[in-house]
Amino acid sequence: MTLPPKPAARPDKVSLWRYMRLFRKDILSAQPARLYRAWMAEFRTPFFRSFLINDPALLREVLRDNPDAYPKSDRIGAGLRPLLGNSVFLTNGVEWKAQRRIIDPAFEGGRLRDTFPGIVAAGQAGCDRIAAMADDTPRAIDAAASHIAADVIFRTLFSLPIEDATAGEVYRRFQTYQQAQPILNLAAFLPGRRWMPRFFRRGVRAEARAIRRLIAGLTQARLDQIAAGTAPDDLATKIMTTPDPATGKTFSKSEMVDQVAIFFLAGHETSASALAWALYLLATHPDWQDKVAAEAAAFDGQFSDLSRLTITRDVFRETLRLYPPVPMMVRQASKATVFRSRAVPAGAQIVLSPWHLHRHTRIWDHPDAFDPARWQDPATKAAQRDGYLPFSAGPRICSGAGFAMIEGVVLLLQLVGRFRFEPVDTQLPVPAAHLTVRARDGIMLRITPRSPPIVSKIRE
User: Fold this and answer.
1) How far apart are CA 311 and CA 409, in angstroms?
2) Which distant-in-sequence residues (6+ apart) come within 8 Å of 366 by Cβ?
3) Which of 73, 374, 421, 460 is the most exposed place for a label (fewest CB within 10 A)?
4) Cis peptide, bond prior to residue 325, ω within 30 of zero
5) How confident is the model at residue 179 (pLDDT cuts 50, 70, 90)?
6) CB 369: neighbour CB atoms within 10 A?
7) Residues 358-402: tens digit of each pLDDT
8) Strand bridging mode 431-433 / 342-344
């Protein structure tokens, strides 16, 4: 059995300088192999101590039982603050709770039905773009997935297709911003206050300012529409008009710009990563691709019947297990504590790594194998509960988790229903992580149209 690609781990012991260089190149290959079997690992540097935890009991403590004692660390978030400001992704405490009280209602079950037409329309437009160039020439499917995912965000958030001039410019600038690797700056290694310089790579701050100006324009236009009573009933309108039930306040324009920035970064970049890897895994496992195609043929196109798409959903779940878009999350111990009989000082960094947890050899059977059938196996219930964190867990679970699952299933169904995907044997994608888990040199696939297409029943 050929296993999906996985980056090589570094030697167990390296110097801090060597680790910093590896980290800047790729977060995943900068970690030692022992993390795939350890319940906990401690790392010491001259500047801070960190503890990576895979122990299910410790994960429950940090994420579910006592989350206020482990706020988000600014060590990684500092690299994103020029773009994201005080968005819900970066805040803690009272401010974060107030933001979630406004944002969460927009992603409740009843509202997700309203996003379905936008997802379907973006998928159809993406299929049409691919059809216009589909031939035997290998194509970069991650680039196509990124375009589709960005279209989904703009259609569901602002009722704008990616062809809109402002939407298109935001998308293009985000591509440049991501290539600058904003998360990889000295703040990840050196202690300091928020006001201290972060030494970003050239272009990071300028692109962040340009993106925020564009988002501010979209936000002001929507505020004007809301005031005039002409605003469409989409996610942006819902969030901008929802008051905090505890205080009655709504987001100001600047606060909404922060939230839109994270919706685009998280909703677009993570979805694009998952969709590209899912298509690659189906290309290399044609038996599962045929099962998804058959499920697409039987689907009647109704939102209410999405729950019946168990095969496509399990393929997407398994993709998120093998290639979690957000490979690591960092919390900070607010006070001294003890983990597994080891003292954890106040200020220590607590690293939660879905990448290692999802492939943990003491939790999952055949952890590196692509096996969507495991999700229907009762024997894996404990692993699914203890070893699966694609959207985090507890109070800080991603607000858009339900949206992301619907989006992933619908887009997979549309794409596999229109096309057959085949791998390029000479171009094996190597996973690497900066903002999200992507392929270092892209994912190249051969894409050929199915004749006839089998998902004509999926309509807006």
Assistant:
1) 9
2) none
3) 460
4) no
5) low
6) 15
7) 999 999 999 999 999 999 999 999 999 999 999 999 999 999 999
8) unpaired
Task: Identify which of 145, 76, 451, 78 has the alpha carbon closest to the alpha carbon of residue 323.
Answer: 145
CA 447 – CA 436 distance, rounded (Å):
24
User: CA 421, CA 427: separation in Å to the nearest integer?
Assistant: 14
* Per-position b or e across 270-298, b if 16+ CB within 10 A of its CB: bbbbbbbbbbbbbbbbeebbebbbebbee
Confidence of residue 453 (pLDDT cuts 50, 70, 90): low
Rounded-to-integer distance, Cα 354 and Cα 322, Å: 9
- Amino acid identity, position 23: F
The two beta strands, 342-344 and 337-339, are antiparallel
Nearest to 76 by CA among 432, 356, 439, 352: 352
422 bridge partner residues: 446
